């Protein structure tokens, strides 16, 4: 088992307090701290700490995938950690975005490679050949947009705004309810000349601001519309956001974002797990490149309810948030007063968020892990004993039948080489 050193991403939308406070660092921080990446993604691999030396997790896995990942995970995903764990702290709204299916990612990546598009080109869509399903667990109240609302209540929302310039958009949704109308409206807004869209956004933002404090079924949506227009004036994403499901996650709740789901995180602090990919197709609320044709091919425009994932008890003090995704499974563990064993025959990462957790392996080696710190447990680690009091998140692969939990005896781990 190895303590990890993880990198913070200082995106402009990040919080200056949430991640620094958890890490016990000075708060507020000099610059926003948006995400803490915990994993082996090529763009920012975590580092394993051992005997005063540092070993990038990505390289360690490449050198000995079967020892670190286990045979089943290595066979299924190759010499790659299939998941990426993050702390995400948003003080301002992120862009509207969607992620491709695995088939779309492979085809898109290969096409851009064949065309000679540089991997760091700002207009490149596909950075790798993987899909990017995600799960977000709320540590604090968390606001997000997730998929499209049915067009009938959306028509009511737009009617309440009473903006004459919205008449054509409203007529399209009324004539083509559901997927066809939403596809037509969204692609139309994104392809229209910005000088045409900006006055419409301004008029809608003013109407939202005027109604934001008025009681009614859409008061939250109107407040959101005014807020988004303040962050992204003239951006068509402000109008698209008003077509979408706005959700409020309470601490302890989680939402799953499958391929094709248009979404945006608006505010809050949470633990996010995803397939290890960086494929993002943006759809507004951003100055970055928006490829409307590719986005339209990827997004699921059919209205749907957000996929809230229930917590399922799976072991002592442990609740899992299970999704259809084989790359990952996330669970939350409140370490019982008597302690508990942790074992799995695939790779695991534990991230402590509260208290202090001591991990002890079969050789008696102990690691004391404080909030914001993480430990990588290789597949051949064997069982590890946990003692608290503390709360942690456990990230592992989501392959069926690759692990157990309970009270098995701690066994001798295999020898691992990281050089």
UniProtKB/TrEMBL annotation:
Mannose-6-phosphate isomerase cupin domain residues: 328-394
Cited Pfam families: MPI_cupin_dom, PMI_typeI_cat
Binding residues annotated for Zn(2+), in chain numbering: 97, 99, 134, 263
Ranges for domain Phosphomannose isomerase type I catalytic: 1-150
Record note on cofactor: Binds 1 zinc ion per subunit.
A cellular component term, taken from the record's GO annotations: cytosol
Keywords associated with the record: Isomerase, Metal-binding, Zinc
A biological-process GO annotation: carbohydrate metabolic process
InterPro entries attached to this UniProt entry: Man6P_Isoase-1 (IPR001250), Mannose-6-P_Isomerase (IPR016305), MPI_cupin_dom (IPR049071), PMI_typeI_cat (IPR046457), RmlC-like_jellyroll (IPR014710), RmlC_Cupin_sf (IPR011051)
Cofactor(s) it depends on: Zn(2+)
Single GO MF annotation: zinc ion binding
Reactions catalysed, as given in the entry: D-mannose 6-phosphate = D-fructose 6-phosphate
Location of the active site: 282
EC numbers for this chain: 5.3.1.8
Similarity comment: Belongs to the mannose-6-phosphate isomerase type 1 family.
Protein name in the entry: mannose-6-phosphate isomerase
Organism: Nakamurella multipartita (strain ATCC 700099 / DSM 44233 / CIP 104796 / JCM 9543 / NBRC 105858 / Y-104) (Microsphaera multipartita)
